[in-house]
Amino acid sequence: MKKIITYNVNGIRAAMSKGLLDWIKVVNPDIVCFQESKAQPDQIPIFEFEEAGYQSFWHSAEKKGYSGVGILTKIKPDKVVTGIGIKKYDDEGRFLRADYGDISVVSVYHPSGSSGELRQSFKMEWLTDFHNYINELKKERPNLILCGDYNICHRPIDIHNPVSNAKSSGFLPEEREWIDGFINDGFIDSFRFFNQEPKQYTWWSYRFNSRAKNLGWRIDYNLVSRSLESRLKRSVILADALHSDHCPVLLEIDF
After folding, report:
1. Among residues 149, 158, 189, 220, which one is catalytic?
2. What is the DSSP string of the chain?
3. Angle 117-140/173-184 helices, nearest 10 degrees?
């Protein structure tokens, strides 16, 4: 059995300064998928991760201090693929894939649309192109584990105030329709597979003391191909990890 974690760290250097590495050593995951690394290759603490027993792979954004994804792994991957082959997205460092035998693990960071209409329309374009890309990828790599910050709450249960957020980016009808269609196109929301409880969130605004009050959103997912359903063992939100405005989500799966 392997432990896989998705974690939007909101800056890998900031998270490291808050004890991320010690936390990783205690939890001892086999694979960690990071989003929002916000670092150029020469700013990433690769040596510290190596000392802790992890190979690491990164896809940084062209723009400094922005976006970026990474994968830490104790298991040597057969192959690592960076980007989806569309420049406007790949320049933002949003996709990284590691292949292990017949399974592929992806770290993906979906755009946020919260800064305004321009980025919201970019986000919707990305969602369409990402879905098309994954549909093609499935033909070659049918067993996918898509870990990441999707920047979308799927259902009302996934957000603290669905009524007042009905017109907020991340809970717009078209975004929810997209993630619903994407999951129904062959994936399992592994957290909801095991847990139907409300008030289970992965991101809290830094404002209004939101985290202490648990006024959150569940926007980080480990989506798993339906072909792997029998291998799923457990999934939990690790809300006690305090290195970011997000928290990690753990998936345990027979690899």
Report:
1. 149
2. -EEEEEEE-SSHHHHHHTTHHHHHHHH--SEEEEE-----GGGS-HHHHHHTT-EEEEE--SSTTS--EEEEESSPPSEEEES-S-HHHHTT--EEEEEETTEEEEEEEPPP-TT-HHHHHHHHHHHHHHHHHHHHHHHH--EEEEEEE-----SGGGBS-TTTTTTSTTS-HHHHHHHHHHHHTTEEEHHHHH---SS--SEE-SSTTTTTTT-EE--EEEEEEGGGGGGEEEEEE-TT--SSSB--EEEEE--
3. 0
pLDDT in tens, 93-145: 999 999 999 999 999 999 999 999 999 999 999 999 999 999 999 999 999 99
In the prediction, which pLDDT does 179 show? 98
User: Mean pLDDT over residues 189-196, rounded?
Assistant: 98
pLDDT in tens, 154-179: 999 999 999 999 999 999 999 999 99
Which of 114, 110, 103 lies closest to 130, judged by CA? Answer: 110
Asked if 240 is an active-site residue, the reply is no
Query: pTM score > 0.90 for this model?
Result: yes
Q: Which two tokens stand for residue 185?
A: 């196109």
